Amino acid sequence: MGRCIFCELTGSSLLCENELAKAFYDNYPVNEGHTLVVPKRHVATLFEAGAEELAAINDLIFQVRELLEGKYRPDGYNVGVNVGETAGQSVFHLHYHVIPRYIGDVENPRGGI
């Protein structure tokens, strides 16, 4: 498999975590507060994750939202996952993007980022 940058993140790099998932700021944020939520077990895509992992990720998405609300006060969110290189996935460890959105951050926000 080789090294995985998401598998290696621990400790103070994390915003929050639970038994099966962890969350941390994206190194290449679309907007201030852009966060990634990943399973702790290395799986490449959404379709390889188990139901318990997906539930743990979902729980963290809601925790991340609370943290971002308090720190950045965004006006909205994009939450999504890219599956496969053709869909824009560049790190092959499942990761959900939680992207805070702000009024005026793009000219026309229809369709998301």
- What is the C-level CATH assignment? Alpha Beta
Rg calc:
14 Å
The average pLDDT value, as a whole number, equals 95
Shape: globular
Distance between the termini: 31 Å
CATH-assigned fold name:
HIT family, subunit A
Q: Find the CATH superfamily.
A: HIT-like
Provide a count of the helices.
Answer: 2
Q: How many runs of DSSP E, i.e. beta strands?
A: 5
One letter per element, helices H and strands E, the order comes to HEEEHEE
CATH architecture title:
2-Layer Sandwich
Largest pleated sheet: 5 strands, antiparallel
Spans of 5+ residues with little confidence (pLDDT < 50)? Answer: none
Q: Helical residue percent?
A: 10-25%
The side-by-side strand order for the widest beta sheet comes to: 1-2-3-5-4
Overview features:
single chain, HIT family, subunit A, five-stranded antiparallel β-sheet, 5 strands, 21% strand, globular
Describe the structure.
The protein has 113 residues and is an alpha+beta fold. The protein has helices at 5-8, 51-72; strands at 16-17, 21-25, 35-39, 76-81, 96-101. The longest helix has 22 residues, at 51-72. It is globular and about 40 Å long.
Topology:
Layout: H1 5-8, E1 16-17, E2 21-25, E3 35-39, H2 51-72, E4 76-81, E5 96-101
Antiparallel strand pairs: 1-2, 2-3, 3-5, 4-5
Describe the structure in brief.
This protein has 113 residues and is of the alpha+beta class.
